[in-house]
């Protein structure tokens, strides 16, 4: 039985930990990096949005770059987690401006050893609305590739409503693996979210949901 919680329930459980200074992003990033290592990437492309999911992706990128894995960073939002970006660049990650035509750098197809990390949008603003701007352009470019890369979603695939799993349109990046933090979001278990999430990996970061009734159990 898997319990799925709402975005509000997750935020309420996070609040006392954030107030007391518990490093939730560090815990999430460590779990994300460990999950990415398990799929044995030879190279990683981070799609980094403005929110905390982008920060999680960047700090995971620090660990992967320190492992010697080539890491590229493509910003998709107006802002970026500055400390995460600085640490990632110091670790050897490279920031790029556009999606490479050849993600494997060889023959125009995407090698099996390429992993794209979707850290564009999370459970906050923008969830359940159409992808816009660079996020939309990048997803459309990836969907048009003759062979799609493996995709790891950070917490939830970008654009999926965290409560009901709905999406606004067909421009969505399906994940092979969704690494979600603290609690499984209900939107990963129903609607289009269940189809886009791929395999779900829960990383415990210390949330206490005792006595909280989940939105869904499957």
Automatic annotation (TrEMBL):
InterPro entries documented for this protein: YjeF_N_dom (IPR004443), YjeF_N_dom_sf (IPR036652)
EC number assigned by the record: 5.1.99.6
Cofactor comment text: Binds 1 potassium ion per subunit.
SUPFAM superfamilies in UniProt: YjeF N-terminal domain-like
Catalytic reactions on record: (6R)-NADPHX = (6S)-NADPHX; (6R)-NADHX = (6S)-NADHX
Residues the record lists as binding K(+): 53, 118, 158
Domain YjeF N-terminal: from-to ranges: 10-213
Assigned keywords, A-Z: Isomerase, Metal-binding, NAD, NADP, Nucleotide-binding, Potassium
Keyword Repeat among record annotations: no
Required co-factors: K(+)
Protein name, UniProt field: NAD(P)H-hydrate epimerase
Organism name: Lacisediminihabitans changchengi
Source species taxonomy: Bacteria, Bacillati, Actinomycetota, Actinomycetes, Micrococcales
Record gene name: nnrE
């Amino acid at each position: 039985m898997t319990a799925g919680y709402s975005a509000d329930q997750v935020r309420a459980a996070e609040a006392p930990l954030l107030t007391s200074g518990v490093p939730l992003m560090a815990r999430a990033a460590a779990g994300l990096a460990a999950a990415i290592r398990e799929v044995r990437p030879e190279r990683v492309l981070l799609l980094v949005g403005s929110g905390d999911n982008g920060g999680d992706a960047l700090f995971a990128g620090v660990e992967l770059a320190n492992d010697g894995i080539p890491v590229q960073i493509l910003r998709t939002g107006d802002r970026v987690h500055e400390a995460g970006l600085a640490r990632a660049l110091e670790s050897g990650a490279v920031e790029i401006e556009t999606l490479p035509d050849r993600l494997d750098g060889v023959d125009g197809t995407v090698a099996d050893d390429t992993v794209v990390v979707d850290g564009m949008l999370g459970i906050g603003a923008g969830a359940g609305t159409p992808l816009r701007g660079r996020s939309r352009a990048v997803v459309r470019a990836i969907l048009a590739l003759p062979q799609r890369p493996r995709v790891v979603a950070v917490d939830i695939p970008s654009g999926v409503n965290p409560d009901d799993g709905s999406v606004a349109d067909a421009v969505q990046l399906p994940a092979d693996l969704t690494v979600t933090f603290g609690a499984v979001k209900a939107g990963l278990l129903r609607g289009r979210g269940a189809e886009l999430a791929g395999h779900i990996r829960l990383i415990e970061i210390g949330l206490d949901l005792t006595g909280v009734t989940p939105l869904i159990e499957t």
